Amino acid sequence: MMSSFLSPIYWYGNYLRLCFVVAGLTSQLTNLDNGDTTVHFWGPNSINTTKPSLVLIHGFGPVPTWQWRNQVTYFAPKFNVYVPELIFFGQSTTRLAGRSEQFQADIVAKLMEKIGVKKYSVVGTSYGGFVAYNVAKRWANRVDKVVIASSATNMRLRDGVELLKRAKVEKIRDLFLPTTVAQLRTLLSLTVYNFFEFVPYSLLDDMLQKLFFDNREEKSELFDGLTIGRDNQAHVVDLNKEVLLVWGDHDQIFPIEETCLYGVQSTGLTSQITNLDNGKTTIHFWGPKFINTTKPSLVLIHGFGPVPTWQWRNQVTYFAPKFNVYVPELIFFGQSTTQLADRSEQFQADTVAKLMEKIGVKKYSVVGTSYGGFVAYNVAKRWADRVDKVVIASSATNMRLRDSMELLKRAKVEKIQDLFLPTSVARLRTLLTLTEVLLVWGDHDQIFPIEETVELKHPTHLYGQYLRRRFITAGLTSQTVNLNGEDETKIQLWAPDPAQPKTVKKPALVLIHGFGPVSTWQWQNQVQYLAPKFDLYIPDLIFFGESTTRSSDRSEQFQAAAVAGVMEKMGVERYSILGTSYGGIVAYNVAKRWGERVVRVVIASSGLNMKREDGVELLKRGKVEKTEELMLPATAKQMRNLLSLAKLYSDKRMEKMELLKGLTIGKDDQPQISPLEMAFGKESET
Question: Coiled-coil regions in this chain (predicted)?
């Protein structure tokens, strides 16, 4: 064994302790359990009551100065940081018999109680993650937030068996408590990404002697005392706190799959298996441990690729508080299998429906993505009396033969299975490149290009329906007003439902949109906020949406006259107006020409005082020659960042070009604006 004076591990350990000291921490000892337990920890020199407290709980291996040096340096200026040495690590010891992770958690909590810290967040890594989870679970009133890093608190017996296979050892302690340099190399190769295999023997031997030989027998007992991983059930519960899971992509101790499972398990879903078709079909699914009869049921149907815990982990976390969520593994995915010969999506759909029938769920909505979209569609089609609502994401249920041929060309493969069932890293890279998508239907989706959705239902149409629904839930209805005159002007607008009795008199507010999509797209957020306080009137300006005219007038004054005419015909004598962009120009003219009707005016992002030179500068910034080329993009390339260009910007293009040409402002270098005596109850400044 190398002498301390010559030992690089000894000197590096001193450097690490110095880093803790420089960060404002001191080494401290305290006794618990009537003197039966001694805990060594690092804590702040002086406590800053304005800073929150943070406990860092280390994993197996060296003492925490080796494990938390970088984090302590970063967190110490922002938190009162406490770094305990767990029992039988460093100087911490006990005469009590407890060896479980719950015992370690109680020691940490008792320590914090004794030193007077009443509220704190916990961060635990590896074995320390087990402890942090139990601190938060058992001392919930003391813990604020929880971070669990590279720690499978949901570990099952088979996960431990697989770890032993990867490490090529018989017992877990042979991995984490190495006795030879060869065993230490194995441990480091699994725990250090890109571990350098040619580390000198003498350095590893020095590390082994200095860091792994203390309290070996007692640490071995800690493995025996672990309560997790004793069976194939994940015993994890929702902590009802903000929990952050941190996981390395290349973690070989607890593979990243465990965090996907944790995300599902922590929401209260459990792994379940049931048999169908007289035992010929076995379905594995995730479902609620306890069914809440007040919540609707939701079935999430995955696509090709990994098992559904990978595909639905984010959605499950969001939906579980609001729905009874069921996540089946389709046939031949995960543990689901069948002896029957049928392989169609209709068969998959029938299997899902039979599953829901067997577990007693009579009514449910379905969400399907990719291949799961085909299945969801068929569930809704074949079992219509059971299905409430349907969401189909990135799934061309209207796919034709030529679409498949084009996909093969894009993927540069001969068979569809070569793409979706990759057998090499190169093919997997191709699949991942093609399947990076955005939103419900990504505009970069190369599996089922977004253009295919036009024949089915364009995603902007679906989202437009969602926006219309937001307006409806705000108490508005879509109405059409025909203005008298030879112009045959027709205005579509959203206004309070005339069939609903008015219990409270509210002031009227007109929202006037700008260039771009129809008003539901532009005012979706404001409607939810303003509807409880105002009677809202939201017109689509002429040549937007369904509003039209035979008049040749394309000026903003004509648009203003149409808005004022609608309000008069609706019987609204006084109202305030809010206009954005082009709508701000219209709102200004309504207030200017019908001043006796308008109470207040809000003009947002609208160049009322625009001069010719402002228009010239705008064209330069937009790198276009004409305003309509900027405001009315004609190709997907020009507006790639906006979802579904065609539905938002291509209707009535010629008439909208005329509107831009019909603007009376910006024609010369003088701003055409005059004061309004109604802006927030006082005269506005020009």
Answer: none
